[in-house]
Amino acid sequence: MKFKSIALAWLAAFALLGAPEPGRAADLTVFAAASLTDALQKVGDAYKSETGKSAAFSFAASSALARQIEASGGADLFMSADSDWMNYLDDRGLVEHATRRNLLSNGLVLIAPANAGVSIAIAPHFDLAGALKGGRLALADPDSVPAGKYARQSLTSLGVWNSVVDHIAGAENVRVALAYVARGEAPLGIVYSTDAKAEPRVKVVGTFPDSTHLPIVYPAAIVKGAKPGAKAFLDYMRSPKAIEIFRNAGFSIVEGQ
Asked: Is the pTM of this model over 0.90?
């Protein structure tokens, strides 16, 4: 299975997302977790329609984006898929702490190709290894990428991690893991519920209990040295239109942040 080639194709696609119009620089640059790709693009379109201001997006694993900000900057706003990578930048003084807020939450699901005849009940010690039938479990890197870390937490809590750890198709981010299953190159995968909703070629065959992993939250913060327009876009993500877009994509809104 050519997981590497698919990963490279997805990374190339992410690089093209949100590119500003030729000859015109975007008003700000947003680095955001890959799972936000569809929803945040729509928020950016709505923002431009209402304000005339444009945002360029770079979507990838939160870990990769945080390290890029640490190494060379390049972003005005960062939106992570977990608190750890926001903490990583916050602890190093690379984001404006006072602007940090948790905006969204998500769920974790087990997926299969849409045409697969699979029925799986997620419960302690369920036979996930057997359900793979010799294939591999598509999973974002569990050592660094938030989706993979949440998945490992769930599988460990359920007592099945050791049975599948040697049967994983590792992915650079959650959207690459989604692609493996959508293309039929992995029989099962673990992604966010919003990713599954955005991809018609997969179906959800099980939902992981929230109690088996840390809360899935998406913190956002302005990066040190950001353009003035960063605050306006951060505020816009709390607007009624942005909230409608996020909810339609399947995200939950974190209230009171």
From this structure: no
